[in-house]
Structures are given as C-alpha cells and as structure tokens.
Amino acid sequence: MHEKIALMTDSGSDLPQHIIDKYNIKVVPLKVIYPDREYSDRVDIQPQEVYKRMPDEIPTTSMPSLEIINSTIKEIKEEGFTHLIAIHISSGLSGTYQSVELVAKDFTDDLVIKIIDSKTLSMATGLMVLDAARNIADGVSFENVIDKLNNLQPNVKAYYVIETLEYLRRGGRIGRVAGMLGQFLSLKPIISVDTEGTYYTYCKARGRTKSIEKLIQIVEDAVKDKQINLAVLNGGADDEFDNLLEKIKKLPNIKGLITSEVSPALCVHTGPGLLAVCLHEV
C-alpha cells in the first residue's frame, strides 16, 4: 500500500509559519479567551497583541475545539492521505492530546493514525514535528517515522526564563515550580519540563541577567562535544531576545537554528518577558 503521510500538530508547538507552509503541516489552533471574545491562537490573535494587553487583561486559554480537530482530520482524509501522525503538546499541560485521540476514533476506517504525546511544549514539540516532517519528505515509512520520533522524544529539552511566577500561579500550571522560590530574594527560575510533561525548576539564578546567562550556559554545555538542533524563542522580551540570539549564534556545533515567538496560548501562562531555548542532539 502506498503511504501518503499527513502531519498534524497544535499551535502550542510554536513552529514558524515558513516551516508549516514548506511541509504542509496541519495546525489546530488553541483558544485564547477574553471576557468579550474568543480567539484562535495565531489565526486571529498574535503574541504581541496578548502581551500588549497584559497585565491589565489576562485571558484564559483552552484546547482546540473538537469541531476544528474534526474538520482538520476530515480535510486530511479528503486530500487523499492514507496515514496521519499527530504530535501534540504535553498532556500534562493541555487536554489537546486527549481531544485529538477522541476525535480520531471516528476516522480509523479511513486513515492509519498515530497520536503522539510530546510530553513537552513550544518548540521542543516543534522540533519533533520538524523531524517527522523532514523524514516524511525523505520518503521514510510511517512506522520508521514513528520509531525515530520515539527515540527523539526523551532527548528534546526545553528551558525557559520567566520574569515572574505570577502568571503560572494564576493559570494553575505552576506544578513543582511552587514553593521552591523566594521571589522576594529576586531568585529567577529556569523552568524545564520533566519526563511526565509538567513544569519543574531546573535551576535558579539571582536576578534576571544571571538567569539569562544561565540559559546561554545551558546551550554552551550542550554544544561542547556534540552537534545540536536549536530553537530560540521570544515571549515579549524583544531586546533581551536579540542579545541572547547574538550570543548564541557565536557558539559552535549548532547545526540548525530556528527562531520563533511563543504562542499567545502559552504566554498567557508565563506572562511577558519569556525567553526559551529548545534543543536536541543531532
């Protein structure tokens, strides 16, 4: 049977539009909800708009609607695909993975479907999607694309510096980050995602400058003796992002470097002032 493999993710993967277009990746948008209106993430609201309205207006978010997941998979079927690989942000942080599982049951007669919980988010998920996209473009079989993803998943790392824990606390997503920090001491957490796909404090630094230096050090340590693919992300920290990128670009052993913005649906939980690096060994 000839395999025509479709690839689907959600907007929480933070993939830049040019990559989405190049590989025909189907993206289901998360929802960004204000009292007066509901938006589709990156469709009719962009990250900068959300940041501008903070801290006066902090929206809530929710997973993509079942309708949009259904219509996206239906479109995949109608475009003649025989197989679908769907890679979504951590089920420990969003109900998206479970929603896609639920809707996909209606299509199992028409499509061979594999849904993967990336157990991470942002461009750490995005790097997994990109790996799958390249393999599909290279003609790798459905089962082998999945095998490669399963091998890659534990090796994709994400590290975030945030300005304040307030937004994570409000969003109820503070996880094991809570109780480990004295904001009054100006301790800034570098947050990562554990093997269960929930947030934890990777390390702490005294003050904002030191925490950004720590982020650079994480990348420096990663490139010491191996090549990496790297994504650097900005969440409303424009000048600091430019400086961070400038320093990281000078490092050796970076095979692929992608820059992107953090999705509005994620920045709701982090607030403005987020910087992130996501990486894996090549």
From TrEMBL:
Record's PANTHER family?
DEGV DOMAIN-CONTAINING PROTEIN DR_1986-RELATED, DEGV DOMAIN-CONTAINING PROTEIN YITS
Entry keyword Aminoacyl-tRNA synthetase: no
In terms of PROSITE patterns, this protein maps to: DEGV
| Keyword tags | Lipid-binding
Is Glycoprotein set as a keyword in this record?
no
Q: Give this protein's Gene Ontology molecular function annotations.
A: lipid binding
Name of this protein:
DegV family protein
Any one Pfam family here would be DegV
Q: Where are the transmembrane segments?
A: none
Question: What organism is recorded for this protein?
Answer: Candidatus Syntrophocurvum alkaliphilum
Q: Which NCBIfam families match?
A: DegV (TIGR00762)
Q: What does this protein do?
A: May bind long-chain fatty acids, such as palmitate, and may play a role in lipid transport or fatty acid metabolism.
